[in-house]
Amino acid sequence: MASPKIRSTSRVGHYALGIDWEGGHESIMPYTHIRAHCPCDDCTKLREAGELPGGPGTQLGDVEMLGDRSIFFTWTDGHESVFLLPELRALCRCAYCIGEPERPITGGPPAPPPDEPERA
Ligand SMILES: [Zn+2]
Ligand SMILES: [Zn+2]
Q: Ligand 1 centre from 80 Cα, in Å?
């Protein structure tokens, strides 16, 4: 699968980042959601210990594209995150991405739950 690309990002209120993906998809990701899934070693260890990195008050500082493959975030708690674009794309929790459109609306067996790519 081709690597996803970002056309633009925008702030959605004070709590979420809107991401316009090439190909027409749009994600709105709460900052806390992005921060909690930071792929760095420290945050991975926290998640393995059962804690979520960041917190309810986590705010986004700066957003910077690193070429067309990764994106760099700074946070008001002083942390920095670098996501590969496929990692960020996988965080989208919109109805489409969590598989709602596959749910039959006119009878038939229920669709199986979507596979959560929960990578360590
Ligand atoms: Zn981190
Ligand atoms: Zn989505």
A: 6
